[in-house]
Amino acid sequence: MILFPVAILVSFVLYIYYKVMVLRTKDPLTQEYLNSKAKIFLGVFIFVFGINQYLFYETRLSLFIGILFLILGVFQFRLGFKASRHYKNEYAKLRQKSR
């Protein structure tokens, strides 16, 4: 099962990438958009980590902790996805104004 560790690593690297990009950007709208993208990858990281931990240990305690991680991951992903769509629309409005 090399799929889950690879997904964990990729999502964590992308989370760090977007967080660094937030620090490097001065525009508040771009910062919010990049932060929402980081939340998406944080949600994926937590979700996949929860699945991986249950498959690795297969105990009742790891099941409960895994379910908690799944719920937190879905919640984080959903918030990031909604914010990402919102700020993408804000970019479109900003481009229409500038033309």
UniProtKB/TrEMBL annotation:
Keywords: Membrane, Transmembrane, Transmembrane helix
Pfam families in UniProt: YtpI
InterPro entries: YtpI (IPR025618)
Regions crossing the membrane: 6-26, 38-57, 63-81
Source organism, top-level taxon: Bacteria
Full protein name: YtpI family protein
Organism: Halobacillus campisalis
